[in-house]
Design a protein that fits this description.
64% of the residues lie in helices and 11% in strands. It is mainly α. It has one domain (2-65). The protein has a two-stranded antiparallel ribbon with strand order 1-2. The longest helix is centred in the middle third of the chain and has 25 residues, at 20-44. The termini are far apart.
Length: 70
């Protein structure tokens, strides 16, 4: 499903590339995920999804600005 290629930017870390079989598998996964996400989204509704996205964005921002305890 993948091949490992030399990475000109890093001596030890290889680049991972999908093979044609890997690309086909990924397309199948993406189709299934899209159908699942569309179903869940239709049950929740656009307004609630937008509000939830805004709240999660604020939570992520607050966590990013949090300082470790002294």
């Amino acid at each position: 499903m993948v091949t490992y290629d030399e990475n000109p930017s890093h001596r030890r870390a290889k680049l991972v590339r999908l093979t044609p079989t890997g690309r086909a598998a990924l397309r199948g996964i993406e189709r299934a995920q899209r159908a699942w996400a569309d179903d869940v989204g239709s049950r929740i509704g656009a307004g609630d999804l937008e509000r939830g996205t805004a709240v999660l964005g604020r939570v992520i921002d607050a966590l990013g600005k949090r300082r470790p305890p002294a």
